[in-house]
Amino acid sequence: MRSNQIVLFVAAMLAVFSSCQDDFLEKEPKSQITPEKYLDDESQLAAYTINLYNVFPVMENYGRDSDTDTEADRGYDNRYVPGQWLVPDRGGDWDFGNIYQCNYFMGKVIPKWKKNEITGNPSNVDHYIGEMYFLRAYIYFQKLVALGDFPILKFNPDMDIDQLTALSQRNPRNEVARFIISDLDSATTLMHDFSPDGKGNRLSKQVALLMKSRVALYEGTWEKYFKGTPFVPNGPGWPGLQKDYNKNYQFPSGSIDGEIDYFLTQAMNSSKAAADHILLTPNTQKVEVPGQSYLDFAKACDSNPYLGMFSKIDLSPYNEVLLWRAFDVGLGVGNSYAIGVQSGGDGYTRGFVDNCLMANGLPIYAPGSGYAGDDYLADVRTKRDMRLNLWLAEPGQINILYPSALNTHGTDVAIVPDIMNLLGNHDQPTGYHHTKGNNYDGVNYGQHTGSSMGSIAFRGVEAYLNYIEASYEKNGSIDGTASSYWKQIRERAGVDSDFNKTIAATDMSMEAKNDWGAYSEGSLIDATLYNIRRERRVEMLGEGFRLNDLKRWRAMDQMISTPYQIEGFKLWGPMKDWYNPAKLTYGIGDKSTVSDPAISSYLRVNQKNPTTLAYNGYRWTMAHYLSPIAMQHFLITSPNGDASGSPIYQNPNWPTTANSGPTN
Predict the structure, then answer these.
(1) pTM score, two decimals?
(2) pLDDT (tens digit per residue) in 91-132
(3) How far is CA 532 from CA 13, 371, 499, 539, in A?
(4) For the chain, what percentages of helix, strand and coil (3-state, to nearest 5) are there?
């Protein structure tokens, strides 16, 4: 039995060095060298670290906020149907493959580095070691977000079951966050100020500072809003107390409040250090308009750098883009980035669209806002936050996803939102079709090769947003630095820079209809903090931040008792005339194509077929703030093959039984 445990455990922890993954950027060919002579030279360090860049997400269509209150697709995520998300039998987020790769590098390189045994430019050698510190931190942050408490491994263990079992002990989440920050401090010290390739295709000190602010803000706000629950160390019911090794845990700062203050302070300091070296890309307010030709749109992209920053092939001219991925279909390296934007698959929710401010800084419901209504998509865009104007499609705009347009310059095609694929074109399930990241030059596309669009990995405006939020969460006020950052973001967005005007006009009972971020711990937050969150939601739209933000804010408790319906555009108004009435069917079960107008004038994505589990709205349960750990990992670390004997403990409210839902 013990030998089987060793085999299983090693397989679970050390699934590494897979050669089937695509590289993040350019990758040098593997050298024909023996392992003992590997990682002796600067170029080898560079090649090894860049092979791990595949941990960074690729912006396939700026739809990475789907399955939240901001974007939706035709289906639903089981996290919003309590009882459907189950403890897996094996696999999951409890994985050490990438961590093993990082520690292998550290174990081989650091001793040689300290003895000056690595050939090449010493500054570059330092930089690539710094990259590995960053990569390990980034991977550990993924574990922190998914699982919370997690083992901290600074070296690769021997293949000994007792040692491996002991190393499965979970460190409290704040200790994991401190470890991540320590690695990022090392990365900041060792890496170059800016990307060494001069293009932004490699990591830099500025990215490390930005990442540090992201980690610290995440942990600081998580601990603030989950304080007094099993989701923080030493909270009542914290499952870590079940194990002797965590039973007498003491916070490094002396208390949970001390930890919160530590992380928010770190977030403020590192975000300011990054932001002060970042110039926001200007927005000239040039937008795509209906009936515009490809050449006219190309001119708009060239004359509006903010629009071009999300639409160009080469992102190196943009100071705000700290790290990006390059593609070239001519070299056989393409992506589905802009093709995904134009084809749909998901779309903005009514909640997000209504959440965007007017250009005068007022919410749409405020007296004197000038809101034109939502009978037509053109009305929705009128006099609004320029970011909504840029990223929301309306009929008459360009689309190249037709065989005649591929590999040629784009053609004018009237876009009518193809809700539920009624028109046989491309699925735009909410009617609010996103265009962030669109590029209309068909020369950059192939029907089977994808596109050459650059993909942003880290964008500097996040540092501005992180400082604004961290400083307010820590001090309860907007200081001069936060005020300056906020005004710069709003000015670029074409919104009145007076954020106090917006705060004064904000009605939290109205915002609660549109935005889960209006809540923390099941209660409405104050208007200032809410507008900080609103700014983040709109500026980082589709870039993959939304779900993690909602989790750290504890912004879904209210759905435990009150379901939330995802709605799209106002189908049951004048826009219904865009469609063949015979195809707008409802009230006939699984043959229904749209939701019943008697329920709402707005298209309800999940409320067509009563057998749909999310028919009555999204629900929540506390367990879903963290992922469950698969049963496999308990059993292979238990001397008696029983989960209770494992040093691992399950996350709050999840059982140690495979294929079972949360206990509450």
Answers:
(1) 0.93
(2) 999 999 999 999 999 999 999 999 999 999 999 999 999 999
(3) 40, 22, 9, 11
(4) 45, 5, 50
